[in-house]
Amino acid sequence: MSKQKPGGSIKKFQTCLDWMLQDRNDQSPIVVMVTQVDPDAIGGALVLTAMLEDMIEERGKKVSVLPLYCGGIGHPQNRALFNRYDLGRRFGHVNTYSSPISDRRLVLVDSSDLNDSRLPSALRGKHPAMIIDHHRSEAKPKGKEFYWIEDGSGDGVGSSSTMVFELAHARNFKIGDTEQMLLALGIHNDTKSLVDSTERDRLAFATLSADIDGRKFSELIRYPLPESYFSALSRALTEMRHVNERLVTNVGSIGLDDGDNISTIADFLLRMVGVTFVVVWGVVGKKVRLSLRSTDPSFSLTRFITESFGQNTGGAKMTPEGISEGGATVSLELPDWIDVEDEALEQCVEGMVSKAILGKVFPNNGNGK
After folding, report:
1. CA separation (Å) from 184 to 178, 277, 339?
2. H helices then E strands: how many in the chain?
3. pLDDT tens across 250-304, in order?
4. DSSP E strands, the chain
């Protein structure tokens, strides 16, 4: 096993947990929060939950650990995971949990954005006790918090599942069969089938995959795509605007369960010869979701997102292969009495959004070609 990174020291992890449990009168649960439902986040959160439960029991405490997720489970692969492994019984949705969550009881996995728009407003701006994430971030601990944040640069990682695996390995913690499958899938997905992986990712994947059912793993990778994906792809190919090395397109107005099609299509279009910057957007309810990709090392996606759509609307990460991947969610701020499913209104909103985004990407030529 590769040498543990300083930020991921098991000793620091244990010290942080002792600090979290210091108040004997606080019996509220520790919440392990997932802001984006995908295999990397799900697997990492479940293993971390099991580790924390084990360590709390060793300390003779009665504090429970509760994994929660934000958003929906729209992606077909995520739905397959939740159905096959009955994850709805192990994960709760954040909207179903009404008790207050203090900083010292909050853990973030696969995210380090303290103002993430996907978090409930009551949790934004908090300072979690623990963060484990593979996305570039400015989050810093104030004291005894455990913040382990890396990205794919240098000898870093391309997946949070790799980091959680290393933490479990350092503690000689036995990972369950389901969790092994999820961690392996998380590494596979977030490193683009190991193409964007680092040595640490590959070592973790090799160790995990040695004990999983290869047939079941293949089934989870080759999940069936719904008809809505191909409809969205058809629309995106029709609506493309391509100027020099930049490409913008949209999938129109789509349902919440189809929102993940946006990022899948963005990854696909970045493979087009001569394209270094891709923006794909869609209207989901009263929000605009965007996926952005860039292979230009001199171009900051994070700065583009902030300058174009405002603070705390999204962010970006860098893969080991030098691809910058970003996402943003922007509220349309339409009043409640507006029917967003009205066809005429949809066309009007899509037209306005398209004009605005084209203007941001092509400031000197908004029409594209």
Report:
1. 10, 29, 42
2. 11, 12
3. 999 998 889 889 999 999 999 999 999 999 999 998 899 999 999 999 999 989 9
4. 30-34, 65-69, 92-93, 106-109, 130-133, 146-149, 241-243, 246-254, 277-284, 287-294, 314-318, 324-331
Tokens of 149: 């944040």
Tell whether the model's pLDDT for residue 345 goes beyond 70. yes
Query: Any bridge partners for residue 250, and if so which?
Result: 281
Residue indicated by tokens 């479990």: 168
Q: Where are the beta strands (DSSP E) in 218-267?
A: 241-243, 246-254
Give the pTM.
0.84
Length of the chain: 369
Tokens 């934000």 correspond to 70
Dig out the tokens for 233 from the structure: 């792809």
Q: Give the pair of three-digit tokens for residue 179.
A: 């969790």
* Sole residue written with tokens 């000689």: 172
Helix (H, G, I), strand (E, B) or coil at 356: helix
pLDDT digits (tens, 9 = 90+) for 58-97: 999 999 999 999 988 888 899 999 999 999 999 999 999 9
For residues 105 and 20, the answer to whether their CB atoms sit within 8 Å is yes
Q: Residue 154: which residues within 8 A CB-CB, separation 6 or more?
A: none
Question: Which of 332, 353, 333, 350 is closest to 342 using CA atoms?
Answer: 350
